[in-house]
Structure formats: structure tokens, C-alpha cells
Amino acid sequence: MYSYLIWCVLLGTIWLALYIIRKDLRYEIMFASLLFLPFGLTQPLFVPDYWNPTVIYKLWGLFDIESLLFGFFLGGIAASLYEEIFNYHLRKFGKTLTNKNYARIIYGSMIAFALFLIFIKFYTELSVIWSSFIFILVVSPYFLMFRKDLIKESLIGGFIFMLFYILTLLITNYFFSNFVSNEWNFNGTLGINLLGLPLEEYIYSLFFGIVASVIYEEIKNIKIVRYNKR
Fold it and tell me: How far apart are CA 114 and CA 120, in angstroms?
């Protein structure tokens, strides 16, 4: 019944494992987790047009704890998965390479993203999920222009996170066989399914990974370098 909560628990277990194993990435994991936690508040914009998951309780009939946990765990995992798999760590640049207002621009873009979704939801007939994809697709290249050294890491990180995300969703759907079929609104999708999952979930996780995998490095002006164990 509470398969969405179980999915969050699975993600939380992986988040905790990364946090324990990679002591050098703990600040990055927590930073990204707290950064993406508020995006759980955008959940009502996707319900019921895109999906309508069963949750324990909704505050004011809109906000649920599962979506906050979902954003928190996904942010931390996406930000550290690339470094963990390829055994990389972080190093501060000797001098600033980006605009001094760069962090403000990123934070401002996140607020603009939320406001954009609200506008799409209530004032147009457009799909919220696809409108969010278009927004990210248009805005993301602008940020990577300032950190061209992170383009490869961003794309690889996005692909890795997509594989991870889809795997956890498939595992949850395996143990709760009606999770996807009951809680996703397929009328709000293109109707293209891969392994029983909507195509939109693949695109969402890819874009999320592209953004979240390097956002800490972008904001904090940090370089990813190979970590050689002695």
C-alpha cells in the first residue's frame, strides 16, 4: 500500500551507505540533499496529472513527507554517485573560474523553475512534466558554459544516475507489482513504456542526474580529481 514510502526507504538506505563510506563527500552529500529537499514541495503540481502516489499523510491536502524525503535522498545520491563509482574526490580551485554571483544565479534559477511549473499548472493546458524537461534542457547548457571542465562529468553522472534510479524503481515495482500501474497516470504521459516504466521517468532521472551530479562543484567552485588510494 505504501510502496512510495518503501521506495524512499530504499533510497535512504543507499544514501546512508554513501554517507558512511565516503567521509570525504559527506559535506557534498548533505549540501545537495538540503538543496533539493524543497523540491518535494512541488509534488502537488504533478498530482494527479502525472502520478498520484499513496502517502501516509498530506499536510493541507497537498504536501507529504515522502516527497520531501524523495528529494533529499535523490539530491545527495546524485551528487556523489559519480565520485563513488569512479573513485574521484574533490579539490578546490586555486582561483575562482566562475562569476562571483554564479551561486545566486543557480539559486534564482531554482526558484524560477518552481514558479514556472506553478504557472504551467494553473494557467496553461501544457504538461507539467514535459514543461519541466524543456526548462531544464534550455537552462542547463548556460550553467555548463561557466564550467566546461564539468561537461563530461555532468553527462556521465546523469547517465549513471538514470541507471541507478530506474533500477531502484524496477526493484520497488517488482516487490509491489501494482506500484507503477496504479500510481502513475499514463494519460499524462506519451504512452511509451520501457521495462514497464513510462519514458518520462528515464528522461526525468537523466536530467536530474545531469544537474545534480555537478551542482555542488559548480556552486562551491570545486574540481573533481582522480583519487588514488595508497
Answer: 10
CA-based radius of gyration for the chain: 18
Task: Note whether 205 and 161 are within 8 A (CB).
Answer: yes
Residue 26 phi/psi, 5-degree rounding, is: -60, -40
Q: Beta-carbon neighbour count of residue 32 at 10 Å?
A: 24
SS3 196: coil
For 203-216, write each residue's pLDDT tens digit: 999 999 999 999 88
Distances 137 to 104, 131, 220 between C-alpha atoms, Å: 20, 10, 23
**Of all helices (H) and strands (E), which one includes residue 217?**
helix 199-220
First to last CA, the chain: 48
pLDDT tens profile 149-172: 889 999 999 999 999 999 999 999
Which 8-state DSSP code applies to residue 90?
E
Helices (H), 22-150: 26-36, 65-85, 102-123, 128-146
Using the structure block, give the residue that is written with the C-alpha cell 551530479. 213
- pTM (predicted TM-score): 0.91
Cα separation, 138 vs 80, whole angstroms? 24
Q: Which of 49, 56, 67 is nearest to 1 (CA)?
A: 56
How confident is residue 95, by pLDDT bands cut at 50, 70 and 90? low
